[in-house]
Specification:
Length: 329
């Protein structure tokens, strides 16, 4: 059809017989293609009886090379919203250009109702997008070439900057931030570094061979988030109020739930880091409780005790209860 279009758009008004000869197909095949171009792709084909050939009534017509249905075009528009997940990477402008090309090549669809009522909540990119994109490009190139990189890195936990040499294994996005996971020459182990906390970065001439079987999914398989460690057995309890939401989803691949009296719930799981579990339990206040291990139970109790002390002395003369949410979540 693209070749038929080129011959017709050239203005020579070719006949079906000439098209069949040029394309080395039967005349019936050409006639079926012309019919499909007119009925399915909206080609403004006109047959000129005097010349016995075809031309376009709208000379500016361009043949759409991708024939999308209306629902497919709607999904293309929806997918464009997910580009935000690639912010901070060199892939974003590439994806945007690809989508513009697809939209220009796609068969026209009715404008009304093209964009379905679908939205996504994506964590906004953490850090300066330009700087993160620059670091992403350097690390992506170093990973492809198997080159060690040297960087000046700020650690939020220690509140200081250090110089590190790492072998980048994989780039990973989590909760709105981009991370590089790789071998740290300082710590002699696989570590995770946030791209927005890198002050300076350069590729070195030192080479490395990345592990063939490495993946972030396997490396952090026991973790809740990006905190890695030896798996620890955890037991949690949720009251009847919180249990409604806990039942709705899988929070960890190892979780096991047991129903309790009056709607309460017990959860057993094995995780590679207790810090993330601690933050998760604290987010639920009095509706969740740690039963095991003892060190996690004590850590949560200490945090709650210190938080309570921070609020001691606040006025109790007015009702400070939070209003009920407008809609259930």
């Amino acid at each position: 059809m693209a070749r038929i279009h080129a011959l017709i758009a050239g203005g020579s008004r070719p006949s079906a017989a000439r098209l069949a000869a040029d394309l080395e197909v039967s005349r019936r095949t050409v006639e079926r293609d012309l019919e499909a171009m007119r009925d399915e792709l909206g080609a403004p084909l006109v047959y000129d009886r005097r010349s016995g050939g075809y031309y376009y009534s709208a000379p500016s017509f361009q043949l759409p090379l991708v024939n999308l249905t209306e629902s497919e075009a709607a999904m293309l528009v929806t997918a464009a919203k997910l580009i935000e997940a690639y912010s901070g990477t060199p892939y974003r402008p590439v994806i945007e250009r690809a989508l513009r090309k697809l939209e220009s090549l796609a068969a026209p669809a009715p404008a009304a109702g093209l964009e379905p009522p679908i939205s996504f909540h994506l964590e906004p990119l953490r850090g300066d997008e330009t700087r993160v994109q620059e670091h992403f490009a350097v690390l992506g190139r170093a990973r492809a070439l198997g080159r060690t990189v040297e960087m000046e890195y700020y650690s939020a936990s220690s509140d200081r900057a250090t110089t590190r040499r790492i072998d980048p294994y994989e780039l990973h996005r989590f909760s709105g931030a981009w991370y590089v996971v790789g071998w740290c020459h300082t710590r002699k182990q696989i570590r995770t570094f946030a791209l927005d906390r890198i002050f300076s970065l350069r590729e070195t001439t030192d080479c490395f061979v990345p592990p063939a079987d490495f993946s972030v999914a396997r490396h952090y398989g026991d973790a809740m988030g990006l905190e890695h460690g030896e798996p620890v057995a955890v037991e949690l309890w949720f009251d009847a109020y919180q249990a409604r939401w806990i039942r709705e989803r899988v929070w960890h691949s190892s979780q096991q739930l047991r129903e309790g009296p009056d709607g309460c719930l017990w959860m057993s799981l094995r995780v590679g880091s207790l810090q993330q579990v601690k933050r998760w339990v604290l987010s639920m206040g009095s509706h969740a409780r740690v039963l095991a291990p003892p060190e996690l139970r004590l850590a949560v109790a200490r945090e709650l005790r210190e938080a309570t002390q921070a609020y001691e002395g606040e006025t109790t003369e007015v009702d400070l209860r939070l209003p009920a949410p407008a809609r259930e979540v």
